[in-house]
Amino acid sequence: MTTHLCAAIMVESLDSALAQAAQAAERGADLVEFRIDQFVDDVDRVAELVQRCALPCIVTCRPTWEGGLYDGDDQARISLLEHIGTAARPPAYYDVELATYQRSANLRQKVDLVVDHPGQQREVSTGLILSTHDFKTRPSDLIQKIEHMAGADTCRIIKVAWPARSLRDNLEVFEIIEAKHKPTIALCMGEEGLASRVLAKKFGAFLTFAAVGDGTGTAIGQPTLEQIKRLYRWDDINADTRVYGVIGYPVAQSMSPAIHNAGFDQTGFNGVYLPMPIPPEYEHFKATVGSYLDYKSLHFRGASVTIPHKQNLLRFVRESGGDIEPLAKTIGAANTLTVRDDGSLYASNTDYDGALGAVCDGMGVSREGLSDKRVAVIGAGGAARAIVAGFAHCGATVVVYNRTFGKAQQLADEFDGKTGQVVAARLEKLCDSCCHVFINCTPIGMHPNVDATPVPTAPTGKGAIGGKGWGEGTVVFDTIYNPIETRLLREARAAGCTTISGTDMFTRQAAGQFKLWTNRDAPIDVFKRVLKERLEAMGE
Ligand code: NAP
């Protein structure tokens, strides 16, 4: 069964609803739901709307007590269905709440008269969607409700919707669809419910809803048609599609879904990549990732893992008996989960590798070539830690400059002597530095504080290549990627340094993940283009 892509339109006027329906058809919808909650005064206009719509449609008049906007009486709205059903081109479906259908024999009779079902005596083509919505939580009697809908002969399609309490609620949605009681619309509202909407096609749901444009949706968490078609690869999703995502909290602003999905598209890889918000505690991480892995038909094959779960990933993979990349273990954080073909887990860190690759290419040296270089790392947080470990591992001499000197000292003590030398220094001493490479690992200069810089005075250390402090031969790398060129990089470029943007590290760490998951080289130019477009769009 094909899963329909249904544009949800809240009708305000005949003309605007028809215009939105036409746009929906252009943007790839093959079905429209007209929510006529506030458009019921003139039944002839409703009938005209259905007649003139370019796509088949569902007509829904949702009462306030079920989360809609209609506050009139039930008899009137059900009678309206009767009227539009007699027009030359009736709606493909009516959506009626299970509660309405069950509440009165009289209403039930009226509904039964206007929809197609095995006992229907008249020529009627409109199908009945019986629906139940809860806007507060998962209804405790959800299963009984589904059984009632499935048991009603008149009901052609079952619809259930509730707000996702966590990512795990998506799995119940998939179970409900896979149970195949009848063609089913099952979805979870809210940010955590996105998977239930995007993966509706993977599990064979009757439809998924999407908004025609930003701000026009009819429910919380409804993506736009553009997002579902282009960003989340609707046309390519099928039962075998592998699922990936970015796990963090929050993740709504993450650039990773745009990059990885574009990469899947470019290489023809059958995958889809979603934001996966998981609250901070380890128990949430373990329960969610564990249940996603256990749900076999989901084909959950990997994730980018970001703040605050990088340590949790290591612990989870260790406790699950999986493998951990040795340097990720040393760093104490991993950013990539890979589920291998045999189901075993692998945790690794592509952050340090992305940074090393960016600097080596920028300097035109191999990793071994770093062994006689001095690297100044500014900051002593999570990013600095991975970068210090990576450069020290290659034998470089690393100087950690940090506002809180004790943290720089701690980091230096931990990594000093493992391969390269690591020493700590006070941030004020940065202007005397004689390093070949300067790496900003603080958020100073990040959007919106774009006038700030971690290096207000260019270092003048005599040890720099050329012996004149910053200039030709010095490499300045800012891990910040928004803006693409920070004040630090602008000033370094003006001083003749080679500059490297955080976008370079970001696309490289993503490319490392892509390779692990797909066994294909990432289309790095596509990654760069998509990231640039996204960052520019954010700046508008
Ligand atoms: P973090 O763990 O919070 O560490 C932040 C570091 O910055 C700390 O050492 C902190 O010093 C220092 N810092 C913060 N504000 C400061 C200020 N006003 N003055 C002086 N020092 C200050 O953060 P993180 O996870 O390491 O991330 C740091 C940056 O790395 C982020 O802004 C992000 O843009 C970048 N990053 C980029 C990528 C990429 O792929 N391009 C990946 C990861 C991170 P104290 O110790 O004194 O608090």
Please provide a written account of the structure.
This protein has about 550 residues and is an alpha/beta fold. It folds into three domains: about 5-240, TIM Barrel; about 245-350 and about 505-540, Leucine Dehydrogenase, chain A, domain 1 (Rossmann fold, 3-Layer(aba) Sandwich); about 360-500, NAD(P)-binding Rossmann-like Domain (Rossmann fold). Helix content is about 40%, strand content about 20%. The protein is built from 20 helices and 20 strands. It has helices spanning about 15-25, 45-50, 75-85, 100-105, 105-115, 140-150, 170-180, 195-200, 200-205, 225-230, 255-265, 280-295, 310-320, 325-330, 350-365, 380-395, 405-415, 485-495, 500-520, 525-540, and strands at about 5-10, 30-35, 55-60, 95, 125-135, 155-165, 185-190, 205-210, 240-250, 270-275, 300-305, 325, 335-340, 345-350, 375-380, 395-400, 420-425, 435-440, 475-480, 500. The protein has an eight-stranded parallel sheet with strand order 7-6-5-4-3-2-1-8. Strands 10-9-11-13-14-12 form a six-stranded mixed sheet, sandwiched between helices. Helix 17 (about 405-415) links the parallel strand 16 and strand 17. Helix 19 (about 500-520) packs across helix 20. The longest helix has 17 residues, at about 500-520. Bound molecules: NADP nicotinamide-adenine-dinucleotide phosphate. NADP nicotinamide-adenine-dinucleotide phosphate binds near residues 404 and 443.
